[in-house]
Amino acid sequence: MTRSMTGFGAATVEDGDWRTEVTIRTLNHRHLSIRIRSLNDHPSLLPRIEERVKATFARGEVGIWVAIERSVEEGPACRFDRHLARDILNELTSLSEELGFEATPTLEDVTRAGGLQPIQVEDEQLWPVLARALDEAMTNTTVSRDVEGKRLCEALAVQLDQLGKSLDEVRARVPEIVTAHRASLSERAKQLELKLDPARLEAEIALLAERLDVQEEMVRLDAHIARARDALQSDQPVGKELDFLSQEMLREVNTLGAKARDVEAGAHVVDMKLAVERFREQVQNVE
After folding, report:
1. 256 with 171, same domain?
2. pLDDT digits (tens, 9 = 90+) for 44-95
3. Are residues 91 and 157 in the same domain?
4. How many C-beta atoms surround the C-beta of residue 194 within 10 A?
5. Which of 4, 114, 164, 274 shows the smallest number of beta carbons within 10 Å?
6. Are residues 275 and 216 in the same domain?
7. Is 133 found in the same domain as 264?
8. The dihedral sign for the CA sequence 159, 160, 165, 167
9. What is the strand order of the sheet 32-37 is part of?
10. Which of the listed residues 112, 131, 160 is the one where a domain comes to its end?
11. Cβ–Cβ under 8 Å, residues 266 and 10
């Protein structure tokens, strides 16, 4: 199933002393970009969240907002690493004596030296609740991306149908192009009252037909369209593949238009270019 990179999901989990709310919004991006907000007090949890997100999403910009509340306060609101504070105080005292300073280091000096660091013992208690909220939010986001992906798949299929239809029109027109150029060449020779050797005329027409031959372009374009249709039915991320195919399809369409040199075929080529451009634009949102 084609999955969009655009989605939204949220979840709230309450367990024990903790209430955690996670909100996820995803947008299109060439690669996987993860931005986590509102966890400045729990930096040790950031790598765990990133690891979990990478296991779920392959591409896209993933913005994560986390709100944490503690329903029951136990002990002091903030606990510091006293061992670290003592070590830094000892270092400052030793340095002060070594440099001959008479002043004794103060708590402010210890703080400036980074000696008052909160103990993150709460993180281990918080993580199971946060992980559940994160997983539920990612599940809801995935559902949202799947719904949007279904609409994208239908829109992309429409453009492939239009491209295939216009290609069939060109394919039907190709034999008439050679005939029209043959007639035009003969008429031009008559107007100029030129006496051409029939064999020479046929040779020129054969050379012209070779220059107008677009069979290879049409075959490759058919193959690209078929591969794109198959990719739309895949369960794997196919955004990069579809983007590459859109570039290849546009290249073949441009070559076909340049070689055909026919007004009616040219009109169909324009329709094909428009279909490919719309296809490529919508593909930017596919994971």
Report:
1. yes
2. 889 999 999 999 999 999 999 999 887 655 544 456 667 778 888 888 888 8
3. no
4. 9
5. 114
6. yes
7. no
8. positive
9. 7-15, 18-27, 60-70, 32-37
10. 112
11. no
Is residue 243 located within the same domain as residue 139? no
Name the DSSP letter for residue 278.
Answer: H
- Report the alpha-carbon angle 89-92-98, nearest 5: 140
Q: Residue 173 is part of which domain span? A: 150-283
- Of the CA atoms within 13 Å of residue 78, those in its CB half-sphere come to 6
Considering only CA atoms, which of 167, 193, 172 is closest in space to residue 268?
167
Q: Report the number of distinct structural domains present in the chain.
A: 3
Amino acid at 116: L
Q: Is residue 61 part of a domain?
A: yes
Buried b or exposed e, range 251-271, using 16+ CB within 10 angstroms: ebbeebbebbebeebeebbeb
In a domain, 1, yes or no: no
CA distance 71 to 69: 6
pTM, full prediction: 0.70
- On whether residue 117 sits in a domain, the answer given is no
Read off the pLDDT band of 104 (50, 70, 90): confident
* C-alpha–C-alpha distance, residues 282 and 2, integer Å: 12
Q: What is the pLDDT of residues 237-277, one digit of tens each?
A: 999 999 999 999 999 999 888 887 778 888 999 999 999 99
- β-partners of residue 18 are 15, 70
Among all chains, which residue has been given the structure tokens 């979840």?
A: 11
Residues 155 and 270 in one domain: yes
Residue 136 in domain: yes
